[in-house]
């Protein structure tokens, strides 16, 4: 039987048009350090149209089919209104948006520019110095640089192509555009490269359909829960997995959008929340952690913010509890990765859970949505039961779970065995367990698990326990080589501002809460824990510093045998 | 550029599987008049699997492509757990579900059974007597009748095919089934016939994709706003536009589902809400109106119910205000029709609206979602501006707006000019205006508009004003022939229980609130306003009664000219 329903594709053009028509009076506000530069969605629509015309003028080719040779437009930008215009205009005109991670090393960035085939790159004026070495290293596919904002031109003196000013480029263009709202929804809309600590960056290509469905999913009450009454603050960079769906969700719901531009230090974030009357934000745990210190020690009115999302990597329960107890802000915990178009699972407690059960659910990574299959695989390749006890690697397949990495214009998609199983599941690299009622509890990254004497120690568990100590701002635990046990955990902690505590006391705090054989012997205090380009703890960097003898490590060993490992788990070793 | 995202279809099988795995402990509870018969989603999944095997055994053919010759399974059932199993199993196995409107006349029902090509019809035991005349009138395509529940077999003695018992049919089947989760998402999942008051019923065929996307849309905060913590009560029949998306939304979110079966009188609905701790319900205005009378006059604890949806046709603001003021229940107003797969627009006030503005937004029909285009067309065919003033017919196209009616197995889809414009827009038959910020305000059905002396009178406006009077339970205004003005409005009112009031006082109440020339001269009191099979006011029936002289009509004429029309709008006539 033939359905009488129309074949209407799900496209970014629909989100854009919905925003500038039905929600024409909603606004995007960009912080300028002192106040907001505010623009209505009607204006965003007009400027996006002008931008699309200008891009056509620069030779960017639109496409409406998955096999079209579409033009690729790079952005080397922060979270601001112009970046939002590119976010919408580039896919809606049928080209591909490539959001460059401004914190990635230049050599890796140059690789992604060449691999994706960027013809035009947009850059914020204060980032031109960071972009210049990328252009120097790239193989010159880029023909145009468009600078957004004043200044910054000098750094581009060595660029052989044309340099334009954003406002001049779009100034004389028409304010409407025949958006590609009938294109094949499987057509590419954007590409995002993972910032792998090893190997070359790997590109994931999102289709219009996948962006639209992700956006529709994240606004639901069991996920972000966003409505037209919200004021959204994507603290997470827009270059990181499409700003975690928040920019698109703003257009879909008509919620206002608030952006911090280059003002990403905790005091600025607090000010933006206060002045923007923000109702919802998304960020990684380390950003929420830094903001917490600011909120604890200064006087801001952040009462508009009652809920926010924390993801990117596991959030310490102590951080969630601190926000709840001290600022009445509920941090929603979830999980996702570049390969899944951001957020997949979200930790909403089920109906009927009492207060203590609620908390157990909240600190988990949450439940998976419909159309996503998930499984746990043991180190021997066996499927593990979802008992909440068995620990294995999380593997996924289904809606918006990538099946490959982009191979480049002339190559087929890549499916490295390290990332994909032979039967087509994505290997997430995350290790954890799943409860009978479907909640994911991650215990580590595969590469961060500490293999001590044939047993596994979860670095995340030790970190979370340490961070529950009031003196600790951040804690990171990494594997270091050990003659006797192969590997042992080393703890690096940064202390809260103005606090002093003996490492021995922290060691005892930990020993009272976890099995004795897991307690680290090696301890170090760091001013701040080093982070990767997306804000994760840089565990590789810390291991390198240890190997090079650059850390001031204190040995604390209280076990009779000389290593505490046998203390609590003798039978196991 | 090729997307690396997988082509995962959106299917009912995904909703089913998500429900019985991730939300296996959520329940569907069917009221038995005394308590609930409760079943977990895990059991629903197992019983759906058994049902699918049994249907294969009866010869129902699955299909996985839009051009497959799929088997069609009819249901002549109320809202209960077995109907839910059919709702899920039939599409998830690749067959087509045809939900029969149990209140439609037998001749029309027989037409739909033959037109859709039902091979098997499931019927609740107490509805077999109503089904028998349908089968007698049908052209015998039905080979199997499956009776759900005890008794009722005698009425089917004249049926030439096989009669089965639901529980016996599925008893020995396996509890898992290879669901069609990889079918083409444009494949037909279900068919629903409109109960047009004139002409033959017209079938709209919903695809898997359309059901899934509708379900994802209605759970969002600007629409129903449903989460895993809800207890959902679809008072609207499951045979009416897929239960307005509520059954599917329950599986998607893991919310509990509560069903009233045959106990649809107001006292039972109140009891079900109380005992089931219902948090959200959907129903037409006339059902909410009857329930209000029950809640006002009896003592129920309905504190669990804080919000509900009212749609199907325009809800009187006085009814919404009564729920808000007397029971702290927020009725969310919205709009949709069979041709749009139910709910499309929803009246959530925008951010920043003050209390009085909020109310103006709440009583509107709300805003349209992304991917749906809307326009107002004047009687001369001109497009009207969205000023909130210009009144015209609402026309739609886009996601989940049907482009045709089902033509039958051997015929092409039908696109009658009465229902579709030449350029492919759906003519909704609803008349109203649209505000600059995108809110729809309906003033009438095209066929119900009263054309008096060349001017239009909105029957809905008169009804809403009358229903704001405390003595009035329901009011309906219809056009009746008038020698001088062509048509004039006639008001029929039913009074609240135990209340008495002179019609002249009601007439004065109205005259103080609307233009004098619109005030009806003809008045009648009816015990209850007659309703159609989906609960709408039966205006045709009332007009027939008037024409036949079966109504006791009082003439009240206070204008100097003999007809009040010239009193307030002399210049206009």
Automatic annotation (TrEMBL), chains A, B:
UniProt entry keywords in alphabetical sequence: Ligase
Molecular function (Gene Ontology), one example: ligase activity, forming carbon-sulfur bonds
Domain of life assignment: Bacteria
Domain AMP-dependent synthetase/ligase: residue ranges: 31-406
PROSITE patterns associated with the record: AMP_BINDING
One Pfam family recorded for the sequence: AMP-binding
Record keyword DNA-binding present: no
InterPro entries (UniProt xref): AMP-bd_C, AMP-bd_C_sf, AMP-binding_CS, AMP-dep_synth/lig_dom, ANL_N_sf, ATP-dep_AMP-bd_enzyme
AMP-binding enzyme C-terminal domain span: 461-536
Family: Belongs to the ATP-dependent AMP-binding enzyme family.
PANTHER family (alphabetical): LONG-CHAIN-FATTY-ACID--COA LIGASE (PTHR43767), MEDIUM-CHAIN-FATTY-ACID--COA LIGASE (PTHR43767:SF11)
Protein name per Swiss-Prot or TrEMBL: Long-chain-fatty-acid--CoA ligase
